[in-house]
Amino acid sequence: MKYITANSGTVAVGLAFGPIVPEFVQANPDLIDYVEIPFEQLRHTPEAGAIQETVPVILHCASMSVAGFVPPGQRTLKAIEREAERTRTPWIGEHLAFITADPIEDNDAKPTSLTYTVCPQMSEETVERVASNLASLQQHFDVPLILENSPQYFDVPGSSLSMVDFVSAVAERCGVGLLLDLTHFLISMVNTKKDPLNEIDRLPLEQVVEVHISGMNVQSGIAWDDHASPAPPVVFDLLERVVKRVRPKAVTLEYNWSPQFPESMLVKHVDRVHEIVRC
Amino acid sequence: MIAGRVHAIVAAGLENPELLARWQQEPDLLRTYGVDPAAFDLDAIWKFAGLSAKVKHNGLRAELPLTFRFLNVNGLEIEIFGAYASHKARTGTRYAPTTAERIVELVDFLRDWLDFRRREHSQLWDLIRHETALAELRKLTPSPKKCRVPHVVGEIILHEMNSDPRAIGKLLREKSFDPERVQRRVTRFCYWNAGDLDEICILELDELGFNLLSLVDGKRSLADFNRLLGGRVSKKLNSAFAELAAVGVISLG
Q1: Cβ pair B68:A228 closer than 8 A
Q2: Strand A208-213 to strand A215-219: parallel, antiparallel, or no bridges (unpaired)?
Q3: Is domain B142-253 classified as CATH 1.10.45?
Q4: Which residues of B fall within a CB distance of 8 Å from A217?
Q5: What's the ipTM?
Q6: Is A259's CB within 8 Å of B55's CB?
Q7: pLDDT tens digit string along A62-94?
Q8: β-pairing verdict for A222-226 and A215-219
């Protein structure tokens, strides 16, 4: 098994686990430093973990509902603990979002559980909730939890903070490391009609531990996350802006939705990231 | 507005997009949950449900690469998967567990939902049937048939299209896709697996050949075909059968 060295001093470059990754890693053994795997994938298809025989793994997660009001079950937390220990991940990236919510009918006892994370209400109330959730969740792990900004597809009612202000407030209140998803950030800026290159400077970039990069497309009047297409040039401009202020520990390319993602494009983007982070 | 309540409403709408439609028609229903209906962008939440349905179908991309590319370049993903998510909620059904079943269900949905007067819908319908036929035939192992009547050699799937999906595929590989460059013409295809899973043939047929092939069932004799067609076209019929036999897609027994 291969394990990542958390404090190697250089910026590690990796890929999100997906259909093209095992073959790509075999064919290009020295090109990437790690593969990021969601806990949910390891839970449902444990054989995906075999990739760690070839390349180190960083654990990602979408099950803890950090910005939600319904806590994850103990069995789920135990399972994440086990994967964190087994993979020896240097940190666990979790979404600053919710995946489970209370039922709308009071007499309906079962919470609504989604299979994907949703941007929370961005308010002081949620910031406080994140702080208390994080304090309780962190006790389960020997490695730090870091929080990933959500893509904002619509205005969540009751929000009193912008995305940048919300992430900043959480970072300040909790002192937590950030997983800055530049495409999520760009999507939020496009959908709320803000200038991404100005807004990025308002984020607490010194707390960024890891960066995510993926594609984006605009359909039906809204910008959407798209891990099947290459990141637009502005995402790399944003990365350049980030590394001028801070050296993240890792940059992950998330091209994991399509088995047809061109290998040549993947190599080009890995090279582009290396070029930017080594500047 | 209390955050937990807002999350509960958004999550319920995403899980069941039919609720979103109901709230859109009767906004006051939302008031019963103690929230202001005007604060919820129900249309955007519905579209987000479409994104999540699309992501749940990523497993189909290996078999339907051109279909997914077509949906993407024509900006149809959110619209179609949003409608599909609503359809699933309306019918109270879950997405099928296997990729093969999900493809069948998606094609069934599209058959009823697509508006064939819209050029891109018509092209999508041709393309998904084209790729589905190829995917299906790659999985079939044809069994040899012994009979004295016309029978198909191997396995076939027949589709009548309003365009040539191969031409759409070629254009989709270019940097930008213009649906207007796809010629609109009726084409009839026979997707044919003669026994080699790596080599699926696509035969373009005329109307007679297409109709004959659709009737070849390994039971009807040449005389039966003659009778079916009124008994007056035997020469034309015989030469059509001879042509199909010469290609190898049928054997005359």
Answers
A1: yes
A2: unpaired
A3: no
A4: 72, 75, 77
A5: 0.96
A6: no
A7: 999 999 999 999 999 999 999 999 999 999 999
A8: antiparallel
Using DSSP bridges, classify how beta strands A215-219 and A145-148 pair: parallel, antiparallel or unpaired: unpaired
Q: What value does the mean pLDDT take over residues B46-69?
A: 97
Tokens describing residue A85: 């220990």
Average pLDDT over residues A231-244: 98
* CB atoms near residue A276 (< 10 Å): 19
Closest Cβ–Cβ partner in A100, A157, A220 for B6: A157
Residue B2 near chain A (CB below 8 Å): yes
Instruction: Give the Cα separation of A153 and A156 in Å (integer).
Output: 9
Contact B12 A225 (CB under 8 A): no
Note the maximum CA span of chain A: 58
**B44 to A217: CB separation less than 8 angstroms, yes or no:** no
Residues A153, B48: C-beta atoms closer than 8 Å: yes
Query: Backbone phi, then psi, for B193, in 5-degree steps?
Result: -110, 105
* φ/ψ bin of A65: left (φ > 0), alpha (ψ from -120 to 50), beta (otherwise): left
Chain A from 109 to 138: CB within 8 A of any B CB: 112, 114-116, 118, 120-121, 123, 125-126, 129
By CB atoms closer than 10 A (0-12, 13-18, 19+), residue A277 is: buried
- Chain A, nearest residue to B39 by Cα: A157
Q: Where are chain B's structural domains? A: 1-113, 142-253
Of B192, B82, B101, whose CA–CA distance to A220 is shortest? B82
A244-255 confidence digits (pLDDT tens): 999 999 999 999
Q: Do A219 and B79 touch (CB under 8 A)?
A: yes
DSSP string, B83-140: HHHHHHHHHT-PPPSSHHHHHHHHHHHHHHH--TTSHHHHHHHHHHHHHHHHHHHHH-
Q: Does A161 touch chain B (CB under 8 A)?
A: no
Question: Which of A219, A229, A265 would you mutate first to test chain B, the one with the most B CBs within 10 A?
Answer: A219
Chain segment A121-166, per-residue pLDDT in tens: 999 999 999 999 999 999 999 999 999 999 999 999 999 999 999 9
Q: Which of B7, B56, B72, B172 to mutate to test the interface with A (most CBs of A within 10 A)?
A: B7
List the structure tokens of A17. Answer: 């686990």
B59: left (phi over 0), alpha (psi -120 to 50) or beta: alpha
Query: How far apart (Å, rounded) are the C-alpha atoms in residues A130 and A176?
Result: 11
Cα–Cα distance measured from residue B222 to residue B236, given in angstroms and rounded to the nearest whole number: 12
Phi, psi of A66 (to 5 degrees): -55, -35
Say if residue B145's pLDDT is above 60.
Answer: no
What is the sign of the dihedral through the CA atoms of A2, A7, A9 and A13?
positive
In a 3-state reduction of DSSP, which class is residue A137? helix
Residue B75 at interface with chain A, using a CB cutoff of 8 Å: yes
Chain A touched by B38 (CB under 8 Å): no
Contact (Cβ atoms closer than 8 angstroms) between residue A236 and residue A276: yes
